Amino acid sequence: MIPRYTRPEMANIWSQDNKFRIMLEIATLAAEKMAELGHIPKSVPESLRQKGAFNAARIDEIEKETKHDVIAFLTNVAEYVGDDAKFMHQGMTSSDVLDTAFAVQLSQSAELMLKDLDALLGALKKRALEHKDTLCIGRSHGIHAEPTTFGLKLAGHYAAFARAKERLIAAQKDISTCAISGAVGTFATVDPRVEDYVARQLGLTPEPVSTQVIPRDRHAMFFATLGVIASSIENLAIEIRHLQRSEVREAEEYFSPGQKGSSAMPHKRNPVLSENLTGLARIVRSNVMPALENVALWHERDISHSSAERVIAPDSCMALDFSLVRLTGIIDRLLVYPQTMMANLERLGGLVFSQRVLLALTQAGVSREESYALVQRNAMKVWDQLGGTTFLDERRTDPDVIAKLPQEDLSIIFDYTPYTAHCDTIFQRVFGV
Amino acid sequence: MIPRYTRPEMANIWSQDNKFRIMLEIATLAAEKMAELGHIPKSVPESLRQKGAFNAARIDEIEKETKHDVIAFLTNVAEYVGDDAKFMHQGMTSSDVLDTAFAVQLSQSAELMLKDLDALLGALKKRALEHKDTLCIGRSHGIHAEPTTFGLKLAGHYAAFARAKERLIAAQKDISTCAISGAVGTFATVDPRVEDYVARQLGLTPEPVSTQVIPRDRHAMFFATLGVIASSIENLAIEIRHLQRSEVREAEEYFSPGQKGSSAMPHKRNPVLSENLTGLARIVRSNVMPALENVALWHERDISHSSAERVIAPDSCMALDFSLVRLTGIIDRLLVYPQTMMANLERLGGLVFSQRVLLALTQAGVSREESYALVQRNAMKVWDQLGGTTFLDERRTDPDVIAKLPQEDLSIIFDYTPYTAHCDTIFQRVFGV
Amino acid sequence: MIPRYTRPEMANIWSQDNKFRIMLEIATLAAEKMAELGHIPKSVPESLRQKGAFNAARIDEIEKETKHDVIAFLTNVAEYVGDDAKFMHQGMTSSDVLDTAFAVQLSQSAELMLKDLDALLGALKKRALEHKDTLCIGRSHGIHAEPTTFGLKLAGHYAAFARAKERLIAAQKDISTCAISGAVGTFATVDPRVEDYVARQLGLTPEPVSTQVIPRDRHAMFFATLGVIASSIENLAIEIRHLQRSEVREAEEYFSPGQKGSSAMPHKRNPVLSENLTGLARIVRSNVMPALENVALWHERDISHSSAERVIAPDSCMALDFSLVRLTGIIDRLLVYPQTMMANLERLGGLVFSQRVLLALTQAGVSREESYALVQRNAMKVWDQLGGTTFLDERRTDPDVIAKLPQEDLSIIFDYTPYTAHCDTIFQRVFGV
Amino acid sequence: MIPRYTRPEMANIWSQDNKFRIMLEIATLAAEKMAELGHIPKSVPESLRQKGAFNAARIDEIEKETKHDVIAFLTNVAEYVGDDAKFMHQGMTSSDVLDTAFAVQLSQSAELMLKDLDALLGALKKRALEHKDTLCIGRSHGIHAEPTTFGLKLAGHYAAFARAKERLIAAQKDISTCAISGAVGTFATVDPRVEDYVARQLGLTPEPVSTQVIPRDRHAMFFATLGVIASSIENLAIEIRHLQRSEVREAEEYFSPGQKGSSAMPHKRNPVLSENLTGLARIVRSNVMPALENVALWHERDISHSSAERVIAPDSCMALDFSLVRLTGIIDRLLVYPQTMMANLERLGGLVFSQRVLLALTQAGVSREESYALVQRNAMKVWDQLGGTTFLDERRTDPDVIAKLPQEDLSIIFDYTPYTAHCDTIFQRVFGV
Questions:
Q1: Would you say C361 and C404 are in contact if contact means Cβ atoms under 8 Å apart?
Q2: Tens of pLDDT along C357-412?
Q3: CA dist., res. D25 & res. D40, Å (int)
Q4: Which CATH number fits domain C351-413: 1.10.40.30, 1.10.1740.10, 2.60.40.3950, 1.10.150.240?
Q5: Cβ–Cβ of A68/D259 closer than 8 Å?
Q6: Out of B139, B141, B376, whose CB is closest to D272?
C-alpha cells in the first residue's frame, strides 16, 4: 500500500524485519522442542536464542542467487549462528515457517484492527448518544420518507461495526493456525509435538491437517471479512457525503484552518476524507477476489497464491486500518447541524406525515385502497407545487378527507413525537443503555 | 439460475409461491400480535388464517399497474380476505415483509446447504478412511515432492468442508433476523413487540436497529461465505481433474454406460462434472462483488440492492446447492487406482527421498549447505536422465556421499513407512477416530 | 436472467430454439462445402436443407443418456434427416459447432444492443439540445462548484455512450469468429476451406488459430466491454437519482398514473427505475470476473468455461439490453425542472463565483496565495451563515478586497454568461452541430 | 506494487518526480498558449521554462497543511518561479493538470507494455517456428485428444498476444485525452484553444466534453484491457506449469545454476516463475473491479476514484509490465523435450486415432451411431487395461470392425501425418509466413 494510506503501526507488522523476526522465533521454538525430544543437540536452541539474528538486505542478496526466500533466510541466520545452524529447520519445509509467520502477521493485523474498531465504536456511541433525539428526516430512495433521529442513524452504523468486530474476531481465530508438518504435511520428518509446542507458544492452534501449506480457505475467509468491513465503512462514508451535499448540509467533515478545498474555487469545503474511504473500500473489496481464487491450489500446493498474497495481505490490512482510524477521526469531529436537519425535515410541507393520515383513515373504517388513493391524491398536489401548498392545508380542505375524519385532531397526526418514542428501546438493544 | 444447475429442492425455496407464502405468514403473524395488543380488531388475524391466500399470476398483473410488488401482493390477498384486509400490514413498510421473507428464504437455503454439506462430509470421510494408507505421491508446484496417502488428501478436503459448515452456520445466524419497524425503522407506527413476536415465531432474531431495511452487511457476509465454500469446491474439483489427467490417471470420475465423452473422439473419458464445478465456482464467487457493493445504500435505504439480489440470491444458492450435491456424487463414485498411484510414486527413480538423504547427511555432521549441494547434484543427474538412472544408484556410486554416510543403511532411507506413520494422528485430529 | 429484467428480443436470441437453429445452419453449411470438395456425398447438404429439423425437448431427453449436448443434438437431427446424417458433422468436433454458434448469438446480441445504444443516443441528444442553455449548478464532491447547463451534463453522457458504441462494435468484431478446425484445431479431419466457407456465409471471420475452442480472451474482452457500458449506465442512473433527491429535485423520473411509491407512505415518488439500473450494473460488472477467469483453459481446452458462460452470457446480454432500453425510456420522459435548477444555483449566495473573484484579484496584481486567502476568508463567512449573508455582500464590505479591486465591476464578476459561452463549442465537438 | 514485481522502467513512469515533471510541463504549455492569446503576460511561460522546478519532499510538506495536492505543487513551483507564478494555472482546475498528467502516465505505461508485447511476440514466434512440426499430444479436459504440434500451441498464444497488442493500442488511444476545461468543464475561465494546444504538444486528443474530470469509462476500459491481457498471460503460464508437471515434463522453465527449488527437498525444480505470473494475473484482474466502480462519479465528479487509482494504476501497470517481461524470459529459455512429447503421445496405445477409425467406418457406410459404439467399445477396453493392450491390437481383432473395414489399411489410419498437414496454413494465417 502506498504511504499515503498506511499507518506506521500496520507498516511495522508487514515490514521485512517483523516477518524475519517471527520466522526466527518459529525456527527457534521448533528447535527447542526438537532438542527436548532428542532429535537435535540441546545446543541448537541455545545458539539460536543467543546468536540468532538476520539482516534483511543480506537475505535479499542471497535470494538473488538461490531464488528461494526461505533458503536465503536460513543461510543468513546460519552466518550468525554458526555450526549449530545445520540442525535448524530440520525436517521442516519452507511453508512451515512462511505460513505460520503469515498467520502471526495476519493475527497481529487483526489485533490492531480490533483496536481500531473499538475506537470507532467509541466515537459512534458518543455521537449517537449526543444526538439520540436530534430529529432529522429519514430518506429512502433519496426521497424524504419519515422522521428519524441522527442518533438512530449512528446507532445503526454502530451496530454494523459491532458485527464487524465479531466477524473479525472469528476471522482472526480462523487464520490463527500453525503448520509444522514437513514437505507435504505428513510429519514424516518432523514430530507433531513440535507443531503443537510452537503453536502454543505463539498463541496459535495446530492446523489439523495441512498439505505443504495452511489451507487457503482460511485466508479467503479473512480477506472476505475485511471486504465486508470495508463495505460498512463505505456505507457510513457515503452517508456523510450525502449529508454534506450543498443542498442537504446537515453535517460536515471538520475543515481545518489552512486547509484548501479546491485550487480554482476558494469557497469549496469538500467531504474528501469520506470520498477517500469510498475509494479505499473498492480496493479492499476487490482484493477479496484473488483471495478466493487462491483457494484452489494444485495438489499439495502450488505457489500461485504467494505473489497475490504479498500484495493483497499488506494492502488490505493497511488500507482497512487506515480507513478505520480515519473514519473514527471523521466521526469524532463531525460538524452536525441540527437546525438544518429541522429545516430539511419541514421542507416537504408535511408530506412526511402521509402514512399517519393513511392509518387514521383506515382506523376510521376506510378501506386500505381508498385511503391510499385519497392520501396520494393530496400528496401529489403538494409534491407538484412544492412550497406553494402544504400537506396539512390540503388535508384541511379536501372534502373527502373531512368526511372521513370529521373529528380528526390534525395536530395529533402532524406531530413528531411518535418518531422518537422508541429511541430508548433501540438504544437499549444496541448499546445496552 | 438455469435449470441445468438447479435442484428442485432449492428451486422451491426461491419460487414465487414460497416467497408469497412466507410473506402471508409474516403479515398474519404481525396481525396476531397487533390484535392481541388491541391495535387492530381480533377478527383480522382470524380472517387471514382462514381466508388468506394469493395467486402469483394475479399479483404480477396488479404489479403492472402499481409498479410496486408489495402493494400488488397486499391487494391480491385483500381480494381473498375481504374487508379485514385493510388492517393487514398496518403501520408496516414493504421492506418489513420483504426483508424478513428474504431472511427466511436465505435461512431455508442455508438449511438445505448444511444438509448437502453433511452428505459431502459423509462421502469424504468414507473414502478417506478407505484410502487412509493408500500411498501416492504428494506434489507441490505440480512436481513430485514426497509420498503421502490418498486418504490424507481427502482428509484435508474433509476438514475444509467442516470449516465450511461452521462458517455457513455462522452466516445463517447472521442473516436470520426479522425487521418489522416501519417506514424508516423508528417503530413510529408499529409496536416493537410485533417484531419480537414475528421473529420468535419464525425462528429469527429481531434486528436490533434497522433502517427501512435489514442492513446489507449481513447479506454480504452470507454471500461471501458462499463464495469461500465455492472456492473449496473448486479446490477439490481441480484435484480430481488433475488426478484424471491422462498422464496421471490416479482417479477418475465414474463414467456411466451410454455416456459419451466427445462427438469426434469416441475414446474420451473426461472429468466434465468436476470441470462444471470449476465454472460454477466462478459464478458463486463473482456474486460476492454485488453483495459487497450492496452494503452502501443511501441513507435509510435505496433500492439498488434489490435487482442485484433478485439475481444473485437464487443463483448463488442454487449453484452452490447443485455443486455440493454433484461433488458428493463424484466423491461417492470416484474410481481410485492405487496401482497407478504406486507407479507414479516410483516414476522419479527415488528422487522423492531426497530430503531423507539430506537429513541423514546433516545428522552425520555435514553442514546444511554442503549436504544440500551434495544431494542436489545427485538429484539433478537423475532428473536430467529420467528413466536412465535412479537416485538410489547415484547415491550408491557418489564417492562424496559414500564418504559421509559410510554405514548408511540405504534401505532405511529409501523407505515409505515414515510417510504414513502419522496418518493416525492426523485422522484422529480430523475425524476424531 | 429473470424475466423481470429480460426483453423478448434478447430472450429469443438466447433461446434453445435459436441456438439449435444456428447449430443446424452451421452443420448444413459445413456439409455444403464438404460435398462441394467431394468429401461427402452431394445428397447430404440437400437432405439437411430439406429435412433438417430438431426438437429441443427430445434433445434434452437424449442428453440425459449421452451426457453430451452436441451428440444429443446430432442424434436428434439424424432422426429427421435419415441415413445421410451420418456424414453430418464429419471430422468436426463439438466445439466447432458450439463455439461458432455462440459467436453468432453474441454477435446477434451485440447487434441488438447497438440498436439500443442508437436509441439511447437519440434520446440523450434530443434532451441535450433541448437543455443546452438550461443553467444549473455543477457539483464536485457533491458540493456546489460553478454553473454549467443541464444540456452539457447530458452531452457528457452522450459522449460516453458514443464511446460505448465504438467499443461494442470492436468487441462484436472481436467475438465474431468461426472455428471449424477439428478436435484440437489442426484441421486433420476437416478442410480449412470448410471453415472459410461457413465463416463467410455467417458473416464471421475464420479464427486464425483455434485449439479445440475459440480462444476465450475474445469473450473476456466482450464481457469486459459490457461491464464498462454497464458502468456508464450506472453513472447516468446515479446522476438522475441525485437530481431527484428531495432536497435537489432538479429532475424526476416520470411517475405514471396508478403507480405507487411506497406501501406505507402514499406521498413517495422514488427514482426506482434508475435504482434498478444501478443494481443491474453490479451484475453485469461482476460477470466480468468469470469471463476473465475463463481465459486460462487447460491445454487445448477444458470445459470449465462452459457452465460459467451458460449463465453469464445470457445474463449480461439480457441485463444490459434491458438496462439500455429502460434508460432510454427514463431519459425520454425525464421531468426536468429548470426553475428548481436556478433556485439551487443561487442557494449558496453567490459563492459559486469565487473563482471569478480570485481571477480578478490575480489579474489586478495580487499574488495567487494572497488572493486565495482573501477569497476563502469571505467565502467561509458566507458558508458558515448560509442564508444570512451573501458572497456579494461580503465582497462589497471587505476593505481588503475593495482596496485591491477598486474599480471592480462586480456585476461583471457575478454573471452567468461566461458559463454558457462555450456550450456551442462543446456541442459542436460532441454532436457535430 | 512491491519492488519484487516492479521493473525500474515502469517505476520511473509512476514516480512522484515523473508526475510532477508532467504537471509542470502541462502548466507551462498552458501558460504558453494563454500568453499567446494575451490572457496572461508573455513573461509567465518564459519564467516557467527558465525557472520552473519542484521538490517532491517540499510538496509533501506543504500538502500536510493545505490538504490539497495540486495547491501544494503550485505553491512549491511558485517558490522557484517567483511573481509570475500567480498567473500559472489561471482559470484551470486541479483535475485539468492531474487528469491530463495521469493520461500521459498511462500512455507512457502503455508504450512500455507495447514494447514488452513486441518482445514477447518475438520470443513466441521464434519458438513457434522452431517447433512448428514438433509433434505432441493435444489435450482437452486434461485428457489426450489428438496430436498437434508444440509450434501450434505457441502460435495460438502468439495470436492471443497479437490481439492483446491491438487492444492495448485501442485502450491507449482511448485514455490519451487532455482536459483543460476549468472547474466543471465549461471553459468559463479558460479558452478551449489552450486545451487544444496542450493536447497537441503532448500527443493527446482534446477531451470532447469533460466535467471536472476526464470521464472514467476511459480508464475502466484501459484497466479492463490490462485484465484481459493478464488473463492471456495466465493462460500461457498455466500451459507451462502443466507441461512441467512431473508426469508430463514436456517442457521446463530454465533452472539456473545455484537456484534452489525447495528448502526441504533438494531434488525439486518447480515452475515458480509461471506460478508467480498466475498469482499476478489475479491482481491485475481484480483491479478491474475498482476501475469499473470508479465510472459512476457523482455529478461533475467526486474524488472517490482518486484513492483507488493511486493504488491500482501503478500496481496494474507495474505487475503487467513485470509479467510480460518475465514471460518473455520464460519462453526464450524454455527447455523443450520433444522426445518426452513423443513418448506421451504414444502413451495411450493409439487411442488418439479413435476419430480416424470412426471416420473410416462412416465412410465405409456404417451409421454414425453404430460406428461410434464400435469404436468406443474398443477404446474403453484399451483405456481400462492401459499398457496391457493397444487400440491397434483391438482394432485388428474385433470381428465387427474387420467385417466393416476389410480392406482397411490400418497404417493409413494410425498415422501422424494428417495432424501436421495444415500447420503451414495456420502459420501463414498467424505469422504471415
A1: yes
A2: 888 888 888 887 888 888 888 888 887 777 677 777 777 788 887 778 765 567 77
A3: 17
A4: 1.10.40.30
A5: yes
A6: B141
